[in-house]
Design goal:
By secondary structure, the chain is of the alpha+beta class. It has one domain (2-104). It is 36% helix and 21% strand. Strands 1-4-2-3 form a four-stranded mixed beta sheet. The protein is globular and about 40 Å long.
């Protein structure tokens, strides 16, 4: 799992970010939290994945590139839309993956599972 250096975070959990990231990296229970990741399917812009789903033993999370965290699915959808619009405002394009990889170039934060 790779964490985006400039992680987008829901305001409701920003003060608990370090603890939440640790729990996600160590498969500790996190109810009603969602990660926003770059998609496996090229035609998608982003994916929203429940942290409960990430706890499954055989979930392929090694290559996940996490760009956002939110409490609740509705907040995750709002945050994902905000990420896309932020990138569009900055670049005039919807090339989310390319932009985020460019901004990440200095390395990774958090865990590598």
């Amino acid at each position: 799992m790779i964490w985006y250096r400039h992680l987008y975070v829901d305001e409701a959990i920003i003060h608990k970010l370090k603890k939440i990231k640790w729990k996600i990296c160590h498969n500790a229970g996190q109810l009603d939290l969602y990660v926003i990741c770059l998609p496996y399917v090229e035609s998608n812009l982003l994916e929203i994945i429940s942290t409960v789903e990430l706890m499954q033993k055989h979930y392929p999370k090694g290559d996940l590139f996490v760009v956002g965290l939110a409490k609740g699915y509705d907040k995750a959808r709002e945050l994902a839309a905000g990420i896309v619009m932020d990138i569009f405002d900055k670049t005039g394009k919807f090339n989310v993956k390319e932009y985020l990889h460019t901004m990440q170039r200095a390395g990774t934060d958090g865990c590598r599972v």
